Amino acid sequence: MAASTSIVVISAGLGVPSSSRLLADQISVAVERLGRATGLDPAVTVLELRDLAVDIANNFVTGYAAPDLAEAIAAVGGADAIVAVTPVFSASYSGLFKSFIDVLEPRSLEGKPVLLGATGGTARHSLVLDLAMRPLFSYLRTRTVPTGVFAAPTDWGKGTDGGQAAGLTARIERAATELVRELAAARPAAAGAPGAQALPSVATRPEDKSFEELLADLTAPRR
């Protein structure tokens, strides 16, 4: 039997319930479903950083990781992929999120596929994905997937036309597909397992096309 694929989900939400945890859960469900469809055997572990906050702070002043924190650090080091979700504080990732990243073993994230997610009070904070989180994980030499997932309060609304909620679902599906592609590429045998299905294309939306492709669509003769 093939070994399972370890996916660690880092959620830095502080509230209960937390929108960051809600987003993390939706992403992990999509990754697990798509992973199984491609012949992988995903094993998802969720790290709720609010439960580790005191241990993280103590680690900075003592240099000692308490058992629960040590277990979390080991889980990240042994993961095949990471889903990292943080709330936005002062136009960046939260202090708790960054503190956890700082106590990880040096190079423990190097080469790992990472899916970035964030939540905030307004859609204007979505830039945190590219201006704060992506540079951080690039410094850590991870392989961040192209699509990050940001959720503002309006994204959780349920409209009769699908509106905002449908947009969030589409972003989650796209990002999850990209992460699973990274995992499948690292496990070529799994992709050919019985019952495995090909992942849907992730380059079908108009905004994903190059200028030349868009121009060709406009100038193509109509039938």
UniProtKB/TrEMBL annotation:
Low complexity compositional bias, start-end:
188-198
Q: Which domain of life is it from?
A: Bacteria
What this protein is called in its record is NADPH-dependent FMN reductase
Give the UniProt keywords, A-Z: Flavoprotein, FMN, Oxidoreductase
Taxonomic classification = Bacteria, Bacillati, Actinomycetota, Actinomycetes, Micrococcales
Q: Which SUPFAM superfamilies match?
A: Flavoproteins
Query: Where in this chain does the record put each NADPH-dependent FMN reductase-like domain?
Result: 6-156
Any one Gene Ontology molecular-function term assigned to this protein's record: oxidoreductase activity
**Region spans: Disordered:** 188-207
User: What species does this protein belong to?
Assistant: Sinomonas atrocyanea
